């Protein structure tokens, strides 16, 4: 993607610290080292701890501690393959990656291979009594996990894999709850949040990257259709297509995280397939954001022109309810 952008002439400035964003009626921009740069629009994708959010929408959500956290780590498959006690996690992964889940009480441990066994990703949900802090990722020691699982019947089997975790690639990630933002766009309509800056997804929801890509696809499509002279309208349409859907998925992710935390299937035993089977909602997974945007663009435009409510068509089935109207 980076190389393609350069090939088509997109100018990129990497490693720049943005001091401030600004917005006028006909343009907007950023200030870097006192230099004012102009643009037709700003799409801010600077993450859950967004530095630009409060400037764009004059609002920043207050995180709430959920009472849970997750140890997270990445291990090279090569080191595991050389360990007879650990290589069980790699069996069969050369043709198809695998996902193993173990539940004991209110603790869950997940092991997953990636890139056909080239990497092993694991995480462990656990109770967490820390108050909300600004820094999400806290360095941790893999031995902390051993203290949690030491009484499990499969403790040695799991520890054989976990002990290969490099200390510099191991974190303890507290889960926060954040309410959906009321809007993603600035007052004059030329600046917009996207990705985690607009909608926070906990890892248990499993939709952070997907929803960020949908944001990018819809925003780009709306800008292409509307043209350079209609940037504020393009972003307004993009928000009304994306905001209801992302909010619905965000809330669904919160419930999925709670469901993982409340699982209590009992002690895992050798040969047990303790795999959680949560429903996969078609309206989330069978979705083409570009085709949907192209089909709905004129519908949203007409709703804006007439001042009527736009009813999104991509959140059907949420809670078994009819989709609610969104006031433009």
From TrEMBL:
The lineage of its organism: Eukaryota, Fungi, Dikarya, Ascomycota, Pezizomycotina. Gene3D superfamilies: FAD/NAD(P)-binding domain. One of its GO terms (molecular function) is FAD binding. It comes from the Eukaryota. Residues 3-249 form the FAD-binding domain. This is FAD-binding domain-containing protein. InterPro entries: FAD-bd, FAD-dep_Monooxygenase_BioMet, FAD/NAD-bd_sf. Keywords: FAD, Flavoprotein, Monooxygenase, Oxidoreductase. Belongs to the paxM FAD-dependent monooxygenase family.
